Model the fold of this input.
Amino acid sequence: MTRRRWIAEHWDEATATLAGAQAEHMTRVLRTQPGMEADVVAGGHVFHAVVAAVTPGEVRFNLIAELDADPALPVTLVLAVYKFDRMEWAIEKATELGVAAVAPVLARRTEKHLAQTAEKRAERWRRIAHESAQQSRRSDVPIIFDPVPLAAHVRAASEATRIVLAEQERTTTLRHALDEAMAAAESEMPRLEIAIGPEGGWAAEEEALFDANGWRATSLGPRILRAETAAIAALAIVASYLE
Ligand code: SAH
Done:
């Protein structure tokens, strides 16, 4: 039987606690009592646990044994900020597919009012990632970075293999770029960063900026995909390559 996983807010070596909406759900809806068993995620590790105490707004567990965790895909999705409803959908699905982190960036064609409110919105993105991680029984929650201007992210130093999805690219497919990254890394898969443009696509100077900073332009095929479709397709390709 698969048990639901609870992602703890606080933990130490032997105990973990849930607060807020999760605790509320456990106590009010599931009528959790001391002695009940559950799987609890604490600090990226999954534990078999027993409820030790229930108080309004808090559930405390004793951690009994660590279970095998499933690692995230070693991918940071660099997502240009665009229509919030679609972006939220992309974050939810990317979490289901195992993304390790999402880095929202403000691109030239990110609408002004979205760029101005993106920072506030990041909290909601974190909540979506948290809920989606729990729903898909992940043992960790993807990191959602604060939004930054594209140039700051593109220029920042990184150990990752850096890939930019660009619909103008015709020759290098994502699969091909993964083959190369794998060959260069010999046995272990390197970390990847995969950048996806906003609805209007990357501006020419942004493509030049990626190029000048060592990002590899890759294609997902001859059809133009919406940004959220591109995100999901890219992660599915990486997953089929690695898992
Ligand atoms: N400029 C396009 C739409 C951009 S699609 C237009 O309006 O016609 C949004 C983003 O999805 C792009 O910036 C790119 O990162 C990604 N994307 C979409 N289709 C793609 C493809 N076939 N190959 C690679 N990337 C793609």
Remarks:
- The chain has a mean pLDDT of 93.
- The pocket of S-adenosyl-L-homocysteine is lined by residues 165-167, 196-197, 200-202, 219-221, 223-225, 227, 230 (CB under 6 Å).
